[in-house]
Specification:
A 7-stranded mixed sheet has the order 6-5-4-1-2-3-7, sandwiched between helices. 45% of the residues lie in helices and 22% in strands. It has one domain: Endonuclease, Chain A. The protein is globular and about 50 Å long.
Length: 181
């Protein structure tokens, strides 16, 4: 198990070409984002200082020609956390990561767990506790598992919607529900 911290962080500095993440959870807990999520939830301006290291790393990687991409599988109607994720993804997309969204009801056949796939040859299955805290990643080097996860990456990517398009659709649906309540 690769625990959160420097060893896990090294995965993002050492890949050569691509880093892809499939996100399947409707909630993640991270002490780093607690205050920002609270601000977002009550409609206050969100202080994004906690996010700057991640954004800097993405900018550096994409400037060097390396690519970050991600598909978030989400339940609709969106949870507050998923709406917060859309808000944050505006910053990550601007930094160079390509984040796309896939509604859970059109994501059959995909795994129900998160993973990172680096250069289509290094797979890290992510593990969380029952309170949604990240515990670490399991490095999997079995070629058959990597091929299967590469297939899932491609299938998810094919069906996913660009962040900006999904955000517009989600915002419209949220306002329609608010007006009908």
């Amino acid at each position: 198990m690769i625990e959160p911290g420097p060893e896990f962080g090294q995965l993002f500095r050492s890949f050569e070409h691509t880093a892809f993440r499939l996100e399947t959870r409707d909630l993640y807990k991270s002490a780093n984002e607690t205050r920002a999520l609270e601000q977002f939830t009550v409609g206050e301006p969100v202080e994004m200082g906690w996010f700057q290291n991640w954004l800097s790393m993405i900018r550096e990687a994409t400037a060097a020609g390396r690519r970050f991409s991600r598909v978030r599988v989400v339940t609709t109607p969106l949870t507050v956390y998923s709406r917060f994720g859309i808000f944050c993804s505006e910053y990550t997309n601007e930094a160079g990561e390509d984040i796309r969204y896939l509604r859970r009801d059109v994501a059959p056949g995909l795994p129900d767990y998160d993973y990172w796939l680096f250069d289509s040859r290094k797979l890290v299955r992510m593990h969380f506790d029952s309170d949604e805290n990240f515990l670490g990643g399991e490095l999997i080097e079995d070629p058959a598992e990597i091929v299967k996860h590469s297939y899932w990456r491609d299938a998810a990517w094919h069906r996913a919607v660009r962040r900006d398009d999904f955000a517009t659709e989600a915002n419209d649906r949220h306002h329609q529900r608010s007006r009908s309540s």
